[in-house]
Structure formats: C-alpha cells, structure tokens
Amino acid sequence: MANHPHKLPREHYVGRRTHFLSANTYFRRPYFRDAAMCAIVTLQLMRASRKHKFVVIAYSLMPDHVHVLVEGLQEDSDFVKWLDLFRQLAGFWGKRHCGFDVWQEGCWDYTLRDQDAVPGIASYIVWNPVVAGLVERPEDYPFTGSERFSIAELASVPPQRPPVDDD
After folding, report:
1. What domains appear along the chain, each with residue ranges and CATH number?
2. Which of 37, 99, 120, 122 has the most beta carbons within 10 angstroms of its beta carbon?
3. Which residues have a Cβ under 8 Å from the Cβ of 152 and sit 6 or more positions away?
4. Sequential pLDDT tens for the chain (167 residues)
5. In angstroms, how far is CA 81 from the centroid of its own chain?
C-alpha cells in the first residue's frame, strides 16, 4: 500500500494484538455487491491472514467498503505486512475480475487497547449491513463472516463502534 499514515510507533502493529480495518473501494464504487468479487476478496483476506499469522475475528464486505477485525496469533504477526498483502492480493485478483482498481488509496485502522471489547467491535462489523438497510438480520448478509464466532453469537452482543482517535 502506497501511502498509509500510521499513527502509532511501528512496534504497536506487531505481535498478539487486535486490529480493526476500514477500507473503501476505488471512488466508493459498489464492487462488493458482486458475489464473485466478494468471494475473491474473502479468499485473499484469508490467504493474507494465514501468511502473516492472523485470525479473522469478523469481516463485512459492504457494497463500497470493507470492515475487518483481525488478531495476531504470534509475537511476529505483523499487521502492516498483513494489510499490505491483503490489499495487494485482493486488488490484483479483483482488478482481473472487474477491470478496475479495487481500493481507494489509504484506509483507517485502529489497534485495540485492553479496555476495548473485541466482541462488541466484532458485533459492530456484523451489524453494519443491517444499519445500512441491506438486510434485516446480520445472519442474512452473505458477505460477512468470522473464523472465531458464529454470526448469531456476534449479533447477540451489543455493538461497539471502534474509537475514532488512535491517540
């Protein structure tokens, strides 16, 4: 990824930490309404997660953006490397599918602190399609998932929006 202004020192992105990501599609085009495109992006999300030793706690591919919550599984799990690889792989394969750039430059990330509720933030992700009026229940949205919880489990937790400021 070319230009991502990380707010924290580099060491805060490495290790057994949990990170929230929000990234927009290029010009906020609704690429993620297409099931084949969502399958490509989800596959690359999981591929990058395996390579850099992350578990995907929750994700949701909204029509024009993505929310992801990942947790490092080892002391050398590197979120910045994961992020770069995920966007590179999804961008490459997505461009082959749709013929356009997939990602808008930059993204927003947040490294969770001890006081942040992982299930609440994961719930925020799975409730996003409901809030946007795309479905009535989180379980009905086909482009949401988790490697750790069922969508019904996450939907039963009160949603907690990730804090806006990383300071």
Report:
1. 14-155 (3.30.70.1290)
2. 122
3. 138, 139
4. 344 555 677 788 999 999 999 999 999 999 999 999 999 999 999 999 999 999 999 999 999 999 999 999 999 999 999 999 999 999 998 888 888 899 999 999 999 988 789 999 999 999 999 999 999 999 999 999 999 999 999 999 999 999 875 44
5. 14
